[in-house]
Design a protein that fits this description.
The complex is a heterodimer.
Chain A lengths: L1 H22 L21 H37 L2 E2 L9 H16 L3 E8 L6 H21 L7 E7 L10 H7 L1 E9 L6
Parallel strand pairs in A: 2-3
Antiparallel strand pairs in A: 1-4, 2-4
Chain B lengths: L1 H8 L1 H10 L2 H7 L20 E3 L10 H18 L3 E3 L13 H6 L4 E9 L4 E9 L4 E9 L8 H17 L8 E8 L2 E8 L6 E2 L7 E6 L5 E6 L6 E6 L4 E6 L5 E6 L5 E8 L2 E8 L4 E5 L8 E6 L5 E6 L6 E6 L6 E2 L11 E6 L6 E7 L2 E7 L7 E2 L6 E6 L5 E6 L6 E6 L5 E6 L4 E5 L8 H14 L1
Parallel strand pairs in B: 1-2, 1-3
Antiparallel strand pairs in B: 3-4, 4-5, 6-7, 6-29, 7-8, 9-10, 10-11, 11-12, 13-14, 14-15, 15-16, 17-18, 18-19, 19-20, 21-22, 22-23, 23-24, 25-26, 26-27, 27-28
Chain lengths: 195, 463
């Protein structure tokens, strides 16, 4: 019982010391800021300018952020939209297509909410109906490649357009090479969609 | 047997063609066919019995119809490649008994006399076919016609022509048929139909999407086709009497290349499975139960076509690393290779169609990277190349098992063409670079009464 009383007294004096230290900080006591006037009077011109400046600052920062996001979005969109091309009657991923897909893998890891539709296309030379199957295989080959880098298969859907949607209607090697392709469209924009 | 003999007779022609070609070309050009295949259109001016048809007599007000009837019927005979219409005789007198000796002198084997009776709303065409050689009446029948402007107007006349064909040649005519095909449309492509004589080409879908691979139901009143109208491509069926379409089959992933069995009980089609395309058969009678009938992992199987027995199919597959035609019994998962495998060559055989008689399968195969038409027996024998000029693809048999419609770029103008595989005669059906994937119908019967009734009631509702 006495021990308890003792410690209580000690605690009291300790608190007192703390108060003394707290007040006698050595440095001249700064004038406390005047309490902001209760909003009874009209704000002064100065205050309004200040608020406008803050507002401007906030807007500027927002704008900057928006531009930064826009640039990021632009970059993501560009990377994702980039087509891959195939050899004639083949659905294997070529080395140049692999580079394109690697860039997509990086972006898709960065934005896990993005979902893609992969469309396979063919040149006009094979039979109309076989090209539907070939385009499907191309789309599937691209999907398999992306999934092999750990991306979830559920993020990709595939479709084939066979030779029905050529980019170039020419009947020459260049046009055919251009038309044998995989195309990408976003079906879910993930985080990008929130902007 | 008779046909085979005819082809053998033309061997000198074939030899001349091969000998004329530079040696280097003949070695390279045929990279998808073996060297022993017969090359060349085997043009045979086969005997076509002459048929004469004097002007059709008609009551006042129906003369124009009478003229059209004669023109349409004679053109049908010409397009049949079995009868030779004679221009002479249009102004021959028809009063009194038939002067057989006179018609014989004019070169006619058959004489067709037509008379139109009845009213403008319900004209009747009375046809009598005379055998000039035996000097007797072969057959007589009255046909219900329609005014020409009626949707069934021309078809009713074609049906009469087909009946005469059957009397004269004992084999079915192909005049009362239509060809469905893919043509250009706002959203990509639409399905079109055209009469067998090239008249009445018109779109029958208006989906502003991609429509492909039309296939006639054996009844001729419905068409299945592949459509991108929904986000997931599916097989739709179009009811031609009512102009309405419905989803017939929509498995997850792409469904494509539909074909009806000749008995009308099932539909075979290609569908997505696990990253590839396989063939399924769907039970049309029960309206359910798609069942897979090909099993080739890592390969595509598509474009099925039924044998006349509805129990076997031919189809297209790349399972050997080359594109080939296979034949398989439904329910037996070991298909047989039909087209020759050629080591180390790029082979591209596609688009098979089994003839209604069952004896030949027509398809296109690449020769020097250009598709050409071929036929082959279902046991893989007797491979024959039918075309050599331009690109020739996606053939489809007529019900006579003798004519084939296909897409071609011959003669500098692309379009759908009809080839008589017996004589090698070709005619253009529809022009245009974007018309493709034709499918030849069976006989188009007159619209059923129930169909007429319901279409009438639709009209009533609109009024």
């Amino acid at each position: 019982m006495s021990t308890w009383k003792n410690s209580f007294v000690q605690l009291g004096s300790f608190a007192l010391i703390l108060v003394v230290i707290g007040c006698g900080g050595g440095a001249p006591e700064p004038q406390p800021e005047p309490e902001p006037e209760p909003q009874m009077t009209e704000p002064t011109v100065d205050e309004e300018a200040e608020r406008a400046r803050m507002e401007e600052e906030r807007r500027r920062r927002e704008e900057e952020e928006r531009r930064r996001m826009e640039a990021a979005r632009e970059r993501v969109m560009t990377v994702l939209a980039e087509r891959v091309h195939f050899d004639f009657d083949k659905s294997e991923i070529r080395p140049d297509a692999e580079e394109v897909l690697q860039r997509k893998v990086t972006v898709l890891r960065e934005y896990p909410g993005i979902e893609l539709r992969i469309a396979g296309h063919c040149d006009e030379r094979g039979s109309n109906e076989y090209n539907l199957a070939l385009g499907q295989r191309r789309a599937e080959a691209v999907k398999r490649y992306l999934v092999s880098y750990g991306l979830s298969a559920g993020r990709f859907t595939t479709i084939s357009y066979g030779e029905e949607r050529p980019l170039d209607r020419g009947q020459n090697e260049d046009a055919w090479a251009m038309n044998r392709r995989g195309e990408f469209t976003l079906t879910d924009q993930g985080r990008l969609g929130g902007m | 047997m008779i046909r085979e003999t005819k082809y053998l007779l033309s061997w000198p022609v074939v030899f001349a063609l091969i000998a004329a070609a530079p040696a280097s070309l003949s070695a390279q050009e045929r990279d998808s066919i073996p060297s022993d295949v017969r090359v060349g259109i085997l043009y045979q001016p086969a005997f076509r019995p002459g048929i004469a048809m004097p002007a059709v007599s008609a009551p006042e007000g129906l003369e124009e119809l009478a003229d059209s009837v004669r023109t349409i019927i004679l053109r049908d005979f010409d397009y049949s490649d079995r009868l030779q219409p004679l221009e002479r005789g249009a102004d021959m007198p028809q009063q009194g008994p038939v002067n057989y000796a006179l018609w014989d002198e004019l070169g006619a084997v058959w004489l067709l006399i037509g008379v139109i009776e009845g009213s403008a709303d319900a004209p009747i065409l009375r046809l009598s076919l005379h055998d000039v050689v035996f000097k007797l009446v072969q057959d007589v029948r009255a046909f219900d016609l329609r005014p020409l402007a009626h949707p069934d107007g021309r078809m009713a006349i074609h049906r009469a022509a087909d009946q005469v064909m059957e009397w004269a040649t004992n084999s079915p005519g192909i005049a009362a048929t239509r060809i469905a095909y893919v043509g250009p449309g706002r959203g990509g492509s639409e399905i079109f139909t055209v009469d067998s004589d090239g008249f009445g080409a018109r779109p029958i879908t208006n989906d502003s999407s991609i429509a492909l691979s039309p296939a006639w139901a054996p009844s001729g009143d419905r068409l299945a086709f592949m459509s991108y109208r929904r986000s997931d491509p599916a097989i739709l069926e179009l009811d031609l009497a009512h102009g309405t379409s419905r989803v017939l089959v929509d498995l997850p992933g792409m469904d494509m290349t539909p074909t009806y069995s000749p008995d009308g009980s099932s539909l075979a089609f290609g569908a997505y499975v696990d990253g590839r395309t396989e063939i399924y058969v769907y039970d049309l009678l029960r309206g359910c139960c798609p069942e897979r009938v090909t099993f080739a992992r890592f390969a595509n199987s598509l474009s099925p076509t039924f044998a006349p027995d509805s129990r076997r199919i031919a189809f297209n597959s790349d399972r050997l690393g080359q594109l080939h035609i296979f034949v398989s019994s439904i329910g037996d998962s070991s298909p047989e290779l039909l087209t020759p495998y050629i080591y180390d060559r790029s082979v591209h055989n596609a688009a098979p169609d089994w003839s209604p008689q069952g004896d030949r399968i027509v398809f296109h195969g690449w020769v020097a990277n250009v598709p050409q038409l071929f036929t082959v027996a279902p046991n893989g024998r007797g491979l024959r190349q039918l075309t050599q000029v331009g690109r020739n693809e996606d053939p489809s048999w007529a019900i006579d098992g003798r004519h084939v419609v296909f897409h071609s770029t011959r003669a500098g103008t692309a379009g759908l063409w009809v080839l008589d595989v017996v004589t090698g005669r070709v005619r253009k059906l529809v022009g245009g670079f974007d018309v493709r994937l034709p499918d030849w119908s069976g006989r188009i019967d007159s619209p059923s009464r129930s169909g007429e009734r319901s279409s009438d009631s639709v009209n009533d509702n609109n009024q």
